[in-house]
Design goal:
With 316 residues, this protein is mostly helical. Helices cover 87% and strands 0% of the residues. The longest helix has 78 residues, at 207-284. The protein is elongated and about 170 Å long.
Length: 316
């Protein structure tokens, strides 16, 4: 026999116990959900009383809305508890009972068929023993009986194989039916909690509880965005200012260098011009060879040259 999984009697018993435990847990969960429903209802009733009191003032509407939402949660929990019991817990009990019944029938069929084959095998063994012990042996009858024995052994092997295959198939089918029930419950659970979440959307009746928070969040987000924009602009302005200042400094340095070069050139040209004037003046006023007045004229020319040299240079 080539089987991937052999389902034994112990496996069948454990499967039945697990289904029973699942049914009990589902019943307990259903009861807890109903109790939670009652608790939410009581909670909503107290909130409703507070909303109707004189001290609620301008918060009356918000408290009343909160109370109604608790009533909605209460109703949804009660519906979910009844759904679990009706669509899952009771169905699991039916699946378990059906599995037990079908498995019992299949086991009885296997045992009956197995006993029949075993009896036939024993009869063939007795006949084969007589043929083997006889003084005169009929080889044809002996071979035929051996073939019958082999066939009966193969039939017993096949009966075992079919029984284990069917046993595994029954458990797998039961698990598949549980999955179908689980899908149904999950869909209903998503609807229940989806309705509760849908009520929190704008325009679905709970705006009075969320308006202030939403406005506050919007203001905070707007302020944060404005601050971020201002910071970016400040950074850009700062970078621009730094670049402008650097360019101005470089231009001032270049201008100062140009002025210094121009001043040096002007001073050199002035010095050369005055030196030429002094030389020409000295040449014009050289002393004559005769007369005492030549010394005086030469002395006066030298003084005039020195006076011209001491005078400040005219601006360029």
């Amino acid at each position: 026999m080539a089987l991937d999984v052999l389902v034994t009697k112990k496996d069948v018993s454990e499967s039945v116990e697990q289904m029973q435990e699942l049914s009990r847990c589902c019943e307990a969960l259903s009861q807890k959900l109903k109790e939670a429903s009652d608790a939410f209802g009581d909670f909503g009733a107290v909130i409703e009383k507070i909303s109707r009191s004189k001290g609620s003032g301008e918060h009356c509407n918000a408290l009343s809305t909160f109370s109604n939402y608790q009533y909605l949660i209460s109703n949804q929990h009660r519906y979910l508890g009844e759904l679990l019991q009706r669509e899952f817990g009771d169905k699991i009990g039916d699946i378990k009972n059906e599995y037990e019944g079908r498995n019992r029938v299949r086991r009885d069929e296997f045992q009956s068929e197995y006993k029949t084959l075993v009896k036939e095998l024993k009869s063939s063994e007795v006949a084969n023993s007589k043929l083997r012990k006889g003084k005169i042996r009929n080889l044809v009858s002996y071979k035929t009986n051996l073939a019958s024995l082999t066939s009966k052994l193969d039939n017993i092997d096949r009966v075992y194989h079919d029984y284990y295959v069917d046993s595994y198939g029954l458990i797998e089918e039961a698990s598949g039916r549980i999955v179908e029930r689980a899908r149904s419950v999950v869909r209903q659970e998503s609807v229940v909690f989806g309705k509760l979440a849908e009520k929190t959307r704008p325009g679905n009746g709970l705006d009075v509880l969320f308006t202030e928070d939403v406005d506050a969040d919007v203001d905070v987000d707007a302020d944060a965005e404005a601050i971020a924009v201002d910071e970016d602009e400040d950074v850009e302005d700062g970078d621009t200012t730094i670049r402008e200042e650097r360019d101005e400094d470089e231009a001032a340095v270049r201008a100062a260098d140009d002025v210094e070069d121009d001043d040096d050139d002007d001073m050199s040209r002035r010095d050369e011009r005055y030196m030429q004037q002094a030389v020409e003046l000295l040449r014009q006023e050289q002393p004559e060879p005769a007369g005492d007045g030549s010394v005086d004229r030469a002395s006066e020319a030298a003084k005039a040259s020195e006076a011209d040299a001491d005078q400040p240079m005219p601006p360029a």
